[in-house]
């Protein structure tokens, strides 16, 4: 169906069009709808557009937070530019009349009548901040080096809307190339938590420019800026990648997420945890994933677990072979079985190579 909807196959990803949208969104969002109903949240949805109802502004923000968390569990997020909180200033506001019906028919509307409707619009948050860092060119770097730090921080704190994205980029590049003061990162996160995506991408790409002590200081600054373990799943993903990087290695974060995560709760997020952070998992956790978690999860998550077992440096080849053999018993997925077969072959070759080396050493 996906190939059929892409027509000339010049587009990729989710096909655009009413047929594709209706089927894909119903498949993806039906669990979100059910959870909203169980929470007694009144709402309507058309395709991927939600309209939710609340009695107060505080309740509206709480509902938005709950919807954000539910969407994050499915690997989705709200579009900040299209998210609005509309407040009815007067109970007699004509906006309310649109949903009132007479006993036998819709309310009659006078098409000639002209009404002035007052409404208040508030945007809940902007989420379209750039996530991918690019190093500055020579001319841009010269301008950055001329920037006054005090003025830079002042403008950051005063920035709003679209200007803030430019300030994020400028502050990070100033931090990398001019003054590696970690308070700049703290100021970014204090101003806008979603800047974590751009920050982590920049740190990973420019990691070679920082000393070991500076890397450790950066990690401490990020950790104290927010209770990341309680933040929405999407915010934790860039941190998983950063803390699994050799320069910013901090295994406790990923290991803690793995330990506290409810394996039946969000398999997509768990796959991201394993795929990003398996190098920092110790032998006990790798074995636990292979023996306890692997038999109970979907195929797409099994692929991440077997890959972690195959690539882990914490397990010897002799220890991997029985684990991989047992894992094969639970999987009917061609992809998993093919890679496990190749892993077995490579493991056997590795053992044979180690034996030859040992015999040569003895000789």
Notes on the structure:
There is one protein chain. The chain contains 17 helices and four strands. Strands 1-2 form a two-stranded antiparallel ribbon. A two-stranded antiparallel ribbon has the order 3-4. It has helices at 2-5, 18-38, 57-73, 94-97, 138-145, 149-158, 163-177, 183-191, 196-205, 212-224, 233-243, 251-260, 267-277, 283-293, 299-311, 317-329, 334-362, and strands spanning 43-46, 49-52, 84-87, 120-123. It is globular. Residues 94-106, 121-127 and 349-358 have low confidence and may be disordered. Helices cover 58% and strands 4% of the residues. Helix 7 packs parallel to helix 9 (196-205) and helix 12 (251-260) packs antiparallel against helix 13. By secondary structure, it is mainly α.
Helix-strand topology string: HHEEHEHEHHHHHHHHHHHHH
Count, helices: 17
* Sequence stretches where pLDDT stays below 50 over 5 or more residues: 94-106, 121-127, 349-358
Q: For the terminal residues, how far apart are their CA atoms?
A: 63 Å
Question: Into which percent range does the helicity of residues fall?
Answer: 55-70%
| Sheet with the most strands: spatial strand order | 1-2
Share of residues in strands: under 5%
Computed over alpha carbons, the radius of gyration is 26 Å
CA-based shape: globular
Largest sheet: 2 strands, antiparallel
User: Structural class per helix/strand content?
Assistant: mainly alpha
